[in-house]
Design goal:
The chain is an alpha/beta fold and 145 residues long. It is 18% helix and 37% strand. The termini are far apart.
Amino acid sequence: MSIGVPDLAQATAFFRNILDCEPIGLTAVNTTTSEAGSQHAGVPSSRLLLCDSGNVVELFDNHAANSLSASRHSANRSNEPISFSAGDVAHADRWLRHEGVNVIGSPMTATSGPHAGQTVVNFVAPWGLRLQLVGRNTSQLATAP
């Protein structure tokens, strides 16, 4: 998935430090000239990351988007949260709060239906991107029938 971000370094640090994603390479290098006339040659304009959930995420600099492929777009056009899987959502919720991440509400667990036992915690990245971790709480699995 491709995610447009306003500050590539900040987003890379967030995904690395908070979501435990590891950079796996640069995908594009900015060779444009800014409005002020300064060259940005050699400055990465996107970054590939591999997350523990198995997702490969491409973060790209919104400011360099004009110089990138027209087929690239932000994965969050609908303003729906971007989901990642987590082994233990309750633990992840405590971790996010400990790290000062803006967590929205408390983790919610479905009690019936096809998603029974599935827990979701919603949170917001520093630049406003809505994210969520989805999984099952290990403490609930121990008491499940």
